[in-house]
Amino acid sequence: MSVTVTALFNNKSGVGKTSLVYHLAWMFPRLGVKTVAVDLDPQANLTAAFLDEDALEDFWPDSNHPKTVYGAIRPLIERTGDVAQPHVEEIDDNLGLVVGDMFLSGFEDLLSLEWPRAMDSDPGAFKVLSAFWRMIHRAAKSQDARLALVDLGPNLGAINRAVLISADFVVVPLAPDLFSLQGLSNLGPTLNRWRKEWNARLEQAPAGIDQLPEGPMEPVGYVVLQHSERLDRPVKAYDKWIARIPEVYRKEVVREEWQPGTSIGNDPHCIAMLKHYRSLIPMAQEARKPIFDLKPADGALGAHFSVVKSAYADFRKLAIDIGERIGLRDLVRGRAD
User: Which of 34, 52, 144, 146 is nearest to 99 (CA)?
Assistant: First the structure.
């Protein structure tokens, strides 16, 4: 059984990317899709969402982290071997986590160094550049997982380039503001350039290396996460930025001709527009569970509880829509009703 690697990525921070990965990772198993969440952001915020401090002490005792993403690639960094079998922490039935690690940032320089060397058909360069791809697939295979959801940091550095060439699909989380649109204008051309550059390197791959990612990183759409209303930033301002998202995404990311009259409501590239859940977010963080699993005992009382039910419906529909776009239609279709 092959695994579908899907990255949620935006080089702009503060768009709710990690929260989106976290909630989708909880929802997909309920649709029958065994899932592994992979934390490849050196800040490790996804890991902190899943595990409390007591649990984290078992993974981050010192610089030797055998059960984290850094531990898996450390033999490659130290030139003592290939990627080690990654540890997958069981979170729930059909949900596992490849634990993030702040030491992962130390891999950045080596990845930058090996990128140009791949054009010289250097086998070692291909081994390094494809490390994340092998790690993700080994982690998923160990769990018989059908889906790997990958969280990345908000930048266009060498780590994210290596992660994205490992991805089959890319979902772009967005916020309705100028900064998010500016980031999108930068993100789209960068993804297209990385795809071209990796294809050029694959043509130079030496004989005998047959386990390399194809690097499709196919954009399957965007998810808009609305801001909460603020007195100093009127709703009209958000409406202006929301109206511009379809055009910028189409031109910069998928390079399609702009169709006048396209809006968020009828744009086929818009997967969903999620509301802001306000006070439920810190409540869910405290309870260490997704918003849609909050109970009255967690503080979700009265109006809050009705929002919890709404959140469940929203994320269920989002997971089904993404599943259909990334080739998991047969797995999620029967759960759509």
Answer: 52
